């Protein structure tokens, strides 16, 4: 098992911000999904992510843009950013894996590890701990894992088919890919030129036992902002947390 050092923690990251955000309409009619603001926070999702990455030791971020890229680029020009930001725009659709590879080619330190995050994730946990976990397992890629709350009420039954309890929005029994990653330098070379790495690169690494899963610590906030309902739920949750 490899022991982590401060040098093995990434100082660079890719943010994937190119999606259409069609399920978030009308909010995404005039802006890309990462530019949507959770009511009450005073900042778009991408702004929150850049602050979080900076707090975790990141100095350079490559943002992969697509849908309404110029809106995001204009905001970046006017904002007081806590990191150095480069934007890249795919000239043709490359798929999730190809897009990640294209963005990674613009990282300032190709021989060093890097973080990546989907542009619609609002979360706060220690990326440094995740990077150490990645190093300890000698992984090529590590996925953050979340247990989202199921949007329905659940029921408990006994062995005789009697309902014994109702549970409002319980956490899922399955862990899911939380859309936050740590990648070793060689990972970019394993990505497809075009296509989806979640169907090619990740399964291959899993078979080789080189893919790790880091459970987001209990009590840490995590939500993917995918629909208008997610936006209102996140606003309520963050207000209750005082954030």
TrEMBL record:
It comes from the Bacteria. It holds the Pfam family NTP_transferase. Residues 13-239 form the Nucleotidyl transferase domain. InterPro entries: Mannose-1P_guanyltransferase (IPR050486), NTP_transferase_dom (IPR005835), Nucleotide-diphossugar_trans (IPR029044). This is Nucleotidyltransferase family protein.
């Amino acid at each position: 098992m490899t022991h982590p050092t401060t040098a093995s923690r990434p100082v660079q990251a890719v943010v994937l911000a190119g999606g259409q955000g069609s399920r978030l309409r009308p909010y995404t009619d005039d802006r890309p999904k990462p530019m949507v603001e959770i009511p009450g926070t005073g900042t778009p999702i991408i702004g929150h992510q850049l602050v979080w990455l900076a707090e975790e030791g990141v100095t350079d971020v490559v943002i992969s843009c697509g849908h309404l890229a110029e809106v995001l680029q204009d905001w970046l020009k006017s904002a007081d950013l806590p990191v150095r930001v480069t934007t890249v725009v795919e000239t043709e659709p490359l798929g999730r894996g190809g897009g990640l590879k294209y963005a990674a080619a613009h990282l300032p330190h190709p021989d060093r590890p890097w973080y990546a995050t989907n542009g619609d994730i609002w979360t706060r946990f220690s990326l440094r701990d995740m990077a150490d976990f990645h190093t300890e397992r000698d992984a090529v890629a590590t996925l953050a894992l979340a247990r989202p709350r199921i949007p329905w009420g659940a029921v408990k039954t006994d062995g005789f088919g009697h309902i014994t309890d109702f549970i409002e929005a319980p956490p899922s029994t399955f862990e899911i890919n939380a859309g936050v990653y740590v990648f070793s330098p060689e990972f970019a070379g394993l990505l497809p030129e075009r296509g989806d790495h979640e169907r090619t690169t990740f399964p291959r690494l899993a078979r080789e036992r080189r893919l790790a899963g880091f459970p987001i610590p209990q009590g840490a906030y995590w939500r993917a902002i995918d629909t208008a309902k997610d936006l209102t739920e996140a606003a309520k949750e963050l207000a209750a947390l005082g954030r």
